[in-house]
Structures are given as C-alpha cells and as structure tokens.
Design goal:
Helices cover about 30% and strands about 30% of the residues. The protein has about 280 residues and is an alpha+beta fold. A hairpin with a 2-residue loop joins β17 and β18. The protein has three domains: about 120 residues; about 55 residues, no CATH class; about 90 residues, no CATH class. The strands form four sheets. Strands 3-2-4-5-6-1-7-8 form an eight-stranded antiparallel beta sheet, with helices on one face. α2 packs antiparallel against α3.
Length: about 280
Amino acid sequence: MSVSVRIKQKSLFKKKLNINEIIEWTGLSYGVCDESYRLREGEMAEHTLLYNKNRLARGIDVSLDGTDVVLLLSLPTSPAEIREFYGVIDRICGKLKVKTYIREEEQVSLNDKDKFIEYDERGSMAGLEDIQEKIETDEYKRLEIFGVLNPISLGLAEVKEIGGSLAAFEDYLHRIQSLDVYYAAPRVYRIGEKLVGIYAVGADIPSVVPDKPYIVLNQIQGIEEWYVMVKDGKTVRYEDFINNAGEKQYYDANHVIVTLSDDNIEDMVERFYAEI
C-alpha cells in the first residue's frame, strides 16, 4: 500500500531536472536500496530513498519521469514521515513555482495538506490493524515490511510492542533501525550444478542474521546449500553457524543479533569448516 504523487511543471518551456538537485531541495538524507533492500547511504539512482535520519521510518521514494517529479510513500508508516512527505511536496512545489500536484491521479492543492496527512494516518492505522489481525489470528507467523535501512520482520512480539498505536509504531521503526548493527544478507553463487547462498560476518561486529537463511521476496529460488563466511574466505554451514554462535539477542521476528570474537571464529572454523 502506498501513496503516489506527481509534481508537474507548469511553464511552457519545462526545466530539465536531475535527481541531485531534487534531493538538495528536500534537505533530507538519501540512499539507494541494494538487492537485499538494505540502504546504501549517500548514493543516488533512478529511484532514491529520502529519509530523516533523526526519525527513521520507511523512506520516501523519489524519481523523475521526464520533467515530472514522482514521489511514493509506503503505508503503514510513521506520522512523522507522513508529515515529512507533505513537507517534501511543499518544498519541491515551491522550487518549481506550482501550487497544485497530482495525488493518486487527482489534482489537488497544497492548501489541502492537513487533510491528506489525516487520510494517510488513517491508511497507516488500517494497515497496522490488518498486520495485527493476521499475526494474532495466526494467519501469518510474521510479515516483512521494508524499513528505510533494511527489511523488518513483524511477529507477535512486535505487534504487542506496537499495541495498535501509530506513535508506538513510529518509536519502534526508529528504535530498531538505530541499533549499531550490521544487517547481513546473502550472496548467491552457482557452483557446479547447484545454487549456494553465502552470508558473511566478521569478528566483534554485532551482526543481524536470520534464524533460517532466506532470500528477500524469494527473488532467487532453488538454493540447495547455505554457508557463512567467517574468516579469510573460510566457510561453515549455516546450520552449524547458527547453532554454535553463542549468546544471541532478539532483533525481530525472523532475526537475531550475534557477536563472534576472534576466538569464537577460530573455534568454529576448527570444528565446522566446510569447503564449498
């Protein structure tokens, strides 16, 4: 679920825009998602995510379509990000000297901002309620949403923490994405006739890893073996890694945080080294 906005220039001779100047107008931080939906901060591409680093949520997608500026806001999101979204619209419209824009295929006025903020907060609330119902009725064990920095798996613990409150959802999104951790994601290789997925972790780096390895959105299927590269290109099977990683901290409904010392890694390699 998302809200789409298109800002069109009104002048006869429309200015050719570039993504760099649009981002500068917003005054926000920015980055680009990699193939695992982790943010590469400070990069720009055809689709770039804008965000307030002091209130992390889900990010505002900005792109150019000819001379038009296109913005997308994913729902549910935080009230702060909804307000930021319409602030971005105000700033871009101001630079382009226009007072109207297209929201969900309808031309609307900048003066209607408060009304649309209310609409999107209601839409976010409905999205939260839907997630809560699906988790509490056991229709799904967990649901994955995309935070601006990385994917987040929502399960029963998250639903209880959020408690059906948009304010609590806002706090949760910022808290989980403010942790000083490395969010690990696999690379997939074809080795011989099989596909192999490989994560990588380092010594003394709190690393977010899944309980069971997977590819986001099942973009690649048919992976037969999973490994973790732990040191000097040496790998262990994922099952051996996760079962022997020592104390784990809860991250979300599908991930834990592990921190391995050099000694832990040496021991793991000695006991479980597996050549791919």
